[in-house]
Design goal:
This protein has 11 helices and 6 strands. The chain is α/β, with parallel strands linked by helices. The chain folds into 2 domains: 48 residues, no CATH class; 188 residues, 3-Layer(aba) Sandwich (Uracil-DNA Glycosylase, subunit E). Strands 1-3-2-4-6-5 form a 6-stranded mixed beta sheet. The N and C termini lie far apart (75 Å). Bound molecules: uracil.
């Protein structure tokens, strides 16, 4: 093979990787993240899960195969770990130590929350993206910058009066929507975060967290309508669904309705 065609072949391979969603190197060997999360709906779903996960292990250099636990076991482990936490810091440590979500194996960081613990406003989005995984903080990419501007319009920011998190603490491969099993595994931690924050209002940013937190589909119809989130501990919190800022970047016409939602949120937060 002449050198030019080798370069062309390498370029074609890289293009193919990018099209398949392989946009960064996270380990020394390829790891099939999708096979770890594939569930058989006909049977009791088993989510293959690595218990020891600092980086995806290369199968050919490890003698032991990853241990697997069922989704039910992972949810029970999350419930027990979350219930044992009495502070924001303890919960953050518990989430970081938790190995029951298969997504963790393919990521660089656990993305827990950013902002003021105990703030009266808690914003909950979908899942970390590439920038969030790189920096270990939620909503720091373009969508996050728009979210910051939206919040600033009602006097809110993560340095003084707002806490921001997601329904998933690890970046899904190629930013795909988290599965129901993944959100179910993270949910006990999200519920405990809500309880420990004890906010006056929760802003739900987008359709995926709407579905995960309230079991409601269709952000177009649900946005702007106040509902209640009930946590595992039986506490209830006012929650307002609105458009995800990434959607607003693609569809700026939605900003008018998002602004109406923010004004409704502002009124609720100022209500005595
Ligand atoms: N989108 C989200 O839903 N969450 C983030 O943290 C970043 C982008």
């Amino acid at each position: 093979m002449v050198e030019g065609s080798e370069t062309e072949t390498a370029r074609a391979l890289l293009r193919w990787y990018a099209e398949m969603g392989v946009d960064e190197a996270v380990g020394p060997a390829p790891a099939d993240l999708y096979s770890w999360t594939r569930a058989d709906p006909a049977a009791a779903p088993r989510l293959e899960t690595m218990r020891k996960t600092s980086a995806p292990a290369a199968p050919e250099v490890t003698s032991a195969q990853p241990e697997t636990i069922s989704t039910d076991e992972a949810i029970k482990a999350a419930e027990a770990a979350a219930a044992a936490c009495d502070s924001f810091e303890a919960l953050e440590a518990a989430v970081k130590a938790f190995d029951g979500c298969s997504l963790k194996a393919g990521t660089k960081n656990t993305v827990f929350a950013d902002g003021v613990p105990g703030a009266d406003l808690l914003v909950i989005g979908e899942a970390p993206g590439r920038d969030e995984d790189r920096l270990g903080k939620p909503f720091v990419g373009r969508a996050g910058q728009l979210l910051d501007r939206m919040l600033a319009a009602i006097g809110r920011d993560r340095t003084s009066n707002t806490l921001i998190s997601n329904v998933i603490f690890w970046r899904p491969p190629a930013n795909r929507t988290p599965t129901a099993l993944e959100t179910a595994v993270c949910r006990p931690f999200v519920d405990r975060l809500i309880e420990l924050t004890d906010p006056k209002a929760v802003l739900i940013a987008g359709g995926a967290p709407l579905q995960a937190l309230l079991g409601v589909t269709g952000i177009m119809r649900a946005r702007g309508v106040w509902r209640e989130i009930e946590t595992a501990g039986g506490k209830r919190y006012p929650a307002l669904p609105t458009y995800h800022p990434a959607f607003l970047l693609r569809q700026p016409a939605g900003k008018r309705l998002a602004w109406a939602d923010l004004q409704s949120l502002d009124a609720k937060l100022k209500d005595h």
